[in-house]
């Protein structure tokens, strides 16, 4: 009897071990099957394009560019924090004119293609601008600003073009629209997390100009997507109709903007941004400067702090999806705006060194500050992003849908860029 019981127990343990191994392998295989399904339904080049543009170019490359640019302005160009803030606004101009890039991809095909040439141009622009920044020892500030703006334009054009591809595939495959948005968000979040984690290490090892040299890799991959993307050709396009198509597209966008469901959220977002004072550049100089007043964080520490902030942003999106998405829209906006304002007071506590009086170290406090600020910021914008997505038509002609997507996409990117 004892032998039989032992055999039964041994067989039971073996079955449990096999089931646990099967469960673990199943969890690991789910993302692989998901990627295969998307690649099968829409073509592997589109999936690769989303991963490259959102994950590598915007996520990883954007993180490296942010930290590298801040140290470049501070240590190489040696500008003041107020000047760096103004220059940051100049380099973000390509993101403010995103609807223009979207209109061009819709109404002005090049050599018979609507998307591929714009990917190639964006990648080429990014490679040239980053090489100029990395290889020139004493680049004038004006030329450096022009190069940074050109690099920003390359990323913005690639973003608009992949958005147009997503819009087209969302119309052709409406049941997979949510999966495509998940792929975009997942790629961007993981890319930003990895990029911020490595940014401080790279700045310390090779300097900000070396980081710009590394940024030629994401731009080169965007160029490669322009070559590999599967897109039908339009050999008989009548370029004499471009002006009329631009006029029609502008009228369609103006009609969309006059809709109360569009201009009211736009006005709210504009006012919210306009009255939110951004002192990020000043804070960056303060907590990286070698002085007795500030914490004097190293490059590695700054990169780790920003990576924790990206985790906070990801947690905010998860919290909204699983807990807050069914709350009334106005109530959610009110409380998130209020909490967003209060979270800005954490910087004041740090500058006044009140955290030290409470026995909280600068490192721990600023990690909490960055993660809370990013999480609340994400919670603040998620309802508006969902509203923007709902404004895009689910059916109709491709150019009309893409134009509306780029119109509301401008609203989404003002906060992040």
Summarize the structure.
Belongs to the major facilitator superfamily. Folate-biopterin transporter (TC 2.A.71) family. With 417 residues, the chain is mainly alpha-helical.
Any overview of this molecule?
With 417 residues, this protein is mainly α. The protein has a single domain (26-416), classed as Growth Hormone, Chain: A (Up-down Bundle), CATH 1.20.1250. Helix content is 82%, strand content 0%. It has 18 helices and no strands. Helix 2 (44-76) runs antiparallel to helix 9 and helix 10 crosses helix 18. The chain is globular and about 70 Å long.
The outline comes out as globular
Mean model confidence by pLDDT: 78
Please, what is the CATH homologous superfamily? MFS general substrate transporter like domains
CA radius of gyration is 24 Å
Subcellular location: Membrane
Organism: Castanea mollissima (Chinese chestnut)
Protein name: Folate-biopterin transporter 2
Family: Belongs to the major facilitator superfamily. Folate-biopterin transporter (TC 2.A.71) family.
List keywords for this structure.
single chain, 417 residues, mainly alpha, Growth Hormone, Chain: A, 82% helix, 0% strand, globular, disordered C terminus
């Amino acid at each position: 009897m004892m032998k039989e019981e032992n055999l039964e127990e041994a067989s039971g343990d073996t079955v449990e071990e096999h089931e646990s191994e099967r469960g673990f392998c199943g969890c690991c295989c789910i993302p692989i099957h998901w990627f295969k399904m998307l690649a099968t339904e829409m073509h592997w080049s589109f999936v690769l394009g989303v991963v490259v543009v959102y994950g590598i170019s915007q996520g990883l490359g954007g993180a490296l560019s942010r930290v590298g640019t801040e140290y470049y302005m501070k240590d190489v160009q040696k500008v003041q924090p107020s000047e760096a803030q103004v220059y940051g606004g100049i380099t973000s101009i390509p993101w403010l004119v995103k609807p223009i890039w979207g209109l061009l991809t819709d109404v002005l095909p090049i050599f018979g293609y609507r998307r591929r040439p714009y990917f190639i141009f964006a990648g080429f622009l990014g490679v040239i601008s980053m090489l100029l920044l990395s290889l020139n020892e004493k680049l004038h500030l004006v030329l450096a600003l022009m190069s940074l703006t050109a690099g920003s334009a390359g990323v913005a054009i690639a973003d608009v073009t992949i958005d147009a591809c997503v819009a087209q595939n969302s119309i052709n495959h409406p049941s997979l629209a949510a999966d495509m948005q998940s792929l975009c968000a997942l790629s961007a979040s993981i890319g930003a997390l990895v990029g911020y984690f490595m940014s401080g290490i790279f700045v310390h090892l090779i300097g900000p100009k070396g980081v710009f040299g590394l940024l030629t890799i994401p731009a080169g991959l965007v160029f490669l997507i322009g070559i590999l993307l599967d897109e039908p050709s339009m050999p008989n396009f009548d370029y004499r109709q471009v002006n009329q198509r631009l006029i029609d597209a502008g009228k369609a966008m103006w009609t969309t903007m006059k809709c109360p469901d569009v201009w009211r959220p736009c006005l709210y977002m504009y006012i919210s941004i306009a009255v939110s004072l951004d002192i990020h550049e000043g804070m960056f100089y303060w907590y990286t400067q070698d002085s007795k007043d500030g914490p004097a964080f190293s490059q590695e520490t700054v990169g780790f702090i920003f990576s924790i902030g990206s985790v906070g942003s990801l947690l905010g999106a998860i919290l909204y999806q699983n807990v807050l998405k069914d709350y009334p829209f106005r109530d959610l906006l009110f409380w998130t705006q209020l909490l967003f304002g209060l979270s800005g007071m954490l910087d004041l506590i740090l500058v006044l060194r009140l955290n030290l009086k409470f026995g909280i170290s600068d490192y721990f406090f600023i990690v909490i500050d960055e993660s809370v600020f990013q999480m609340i910021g994400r919670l603040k914008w998620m309802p508006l992003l969902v509203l923007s997505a709902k404004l895009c038509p689910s059916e109709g002609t491709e150019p009309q849908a893409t134009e509306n997507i780029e119109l509301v996409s401008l609203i989404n990117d003002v906060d992040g860029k």
